[in-house]
Amino acid sequence: LDKFCLGLEPQTQVRFTSTTSALKAQTEKKTAKAAKESRTFQAIQEERKEEAERSVLISCPPKINEKKFIDYLSKHGTINKHFFYNSYGANAVVEFSSRESIASLKESINIPAVEHEAAVPFKSRLLSLKWPGSQSSNHPMPKFKEQSPPSINEITQLLSERDTMDEQLQCLTETLQLTEENISLRFLVCSLLRDIAGAYFPECIIRPFGSSVNSFGKLGCDVDMILDLDGIYATSQKKGSGLSLEYQVKRGASERAVTQSILSVIGKCVDQFGPGCVGVQSILQARCPLVRFAHQPSGFQCDLTANNRVAMKSSELLFLYGKLDPRVRPLVFSVRCWARAHSITSSIPGAWITNFSLTVMVVFFLQQRNPPILPTLDRLKELAGPSDKCVIEGNDCTIVSDLSKITLQQNTDTLEKLLQEFFEFYGNFPFNKASINIRKGKEQTKPETTALYIQNPFETTLNISKNVNATQLERFVALCRESAWLLQQKEILKQSSDSPWGFAALLLPSVTSGAGVKSRRKRKLEPASSRIKNLLDSLKIKGGETVAKKGSA
Ligand code: GTP
Ligand code: MG
């Protein structure tokens, strides 16, 4: 293009040159976006961790002059990003471009003198901004970023404004998913916690896992954290035949006992030294010992575990599945939202199906499509390169990290069709004899008599839904059948301004919890097809049984 410009009038040349640079900028932007998109799970985690280490969390007065605030902090170095949000008052997250800025900032800050009490002199990156005198209110207020999910009514309203059910499911995902700022805040809270644990274990890292990073997190979900001590075991010198030194260490009875003792001490530190950390509970006897607490400045409920590398690998696996096809995340968000609306899942631990199990069920369903939408876990292992090799406590957790190695078959099913068939699939699944196995991508004979058997993807002798009892499974099956049947009613799929339609109609109280199907919509429903009629017949019988069982429980 540049050559082509030569010999043209100067004015025309300028126009061409600016078009060229605009095109160049556009191409660069696209390349950068593609590079960002193709980063591995590990690379994304590392980048976010590093950003968090260069960030501070500041509690601010309610009326804040953003410009003055940023000018004041900029004395310590360039600010990359910042945002404001509300949690027990106004707060700001400020990310500097270099860690030196944090050191410079910390040097200029004092431990406050508190009256009638005494302060624990722990210098964290959780700060308070004092603004002397009253601020003039004629400056514009900064924008506060929302950190909570919309209510079910707000969701219903938003969905009613869409044109198709596919659009509804996309909109649901965009509305519920974690925002960039929310993810940054999650990494920052982990990094603040690391500063506490780092007093004992300077090489440790606290990493978020679960729905904070697996791409299926909903605003308001908990922050699952792992205390990663792997850096401590890294050997600094090669073993030779000469003299060598090693650390003297205390010994515990088992790995589990050591994990419990570390978590118990860190739990105490978090409780007694951690600013903003309240309601600390050490749940050390659980299968996976943990410290649970609320972090008030962020508003997050946190679960800190240790020695839990398999769970991190599961998060990577779900992230990878979420990236492989654009229909996976909307389908998982919809199923999770539907399950929560019908109390199939709960925030209280118990005999309920968990979000993790539901996600694995969606993956399994998508492996069953013809042609399959998602590959099996065995296939992901076959495609792995030497650097992907990963064995944790004797379990081969190897999966390919480079998505470009995975070839997918052409499948054009719409989200509406997939959701409907998800309900039909699990409404008819032989749970009494078959287990769900995403490693093979095929149902297997159930090795135990538990109600629901979903093979743990990496610890293959374990069942991730062992906690689910027969009543909860029956409720899930009954609701799947009811939703499958509802979606067969063409009326439900028609846009309507006077009553919830499409996905919103599936969130209304169910027939098994007392309300009749017909009370959902006053319009006349079409007769069910014979396939669905059978489903409906069994729904009526099963629904009755479930209600009776629930009543007598
Ligand atoms: P939310 O409900 O949004 O918090 O989803 P989540 O995926 O974060 O689930 P949860 O907080 O219950 O668990 C965090 C992570 O722990 C999951 O993503 C899994 O990786 C892992 N996990 C949860 N439950 C089990 C289980 O029963 N077995 C195994 N092996 N891992 C589990
Ligand atoms: Mg979680």
Automatic annotation (TrEMBL):
GO terms for biological process: RNA 3'-end processing. Residues 155-182 form a coiled coil. GO terms for molecular function: metal ion binding; poly(A) RNA polymerase activity. The keyword Membrane does not apply. Residues 40-108 form the RL domain. Residues 166-322 form the Poly(A) RNA polymerase mitochondrial-like central palm domain. InterPro entries: MTPAP-like_central, NT_sf, PAP_assoc, RL. It comes from the Eukaryota. It holds the Pfam family MTPAP-like_central. Keywords: Coiled coil, Magnesium, Metal-binding, Transferase. Residues 417-461 form the PAP-associated domain. The keyword Cytoplasm does not apply. Its cofactor is Mg(2+); Mn(2+). This is Mitochondrial poly(A) polymerase. It comes from Cyprinus carpio (Common carp).
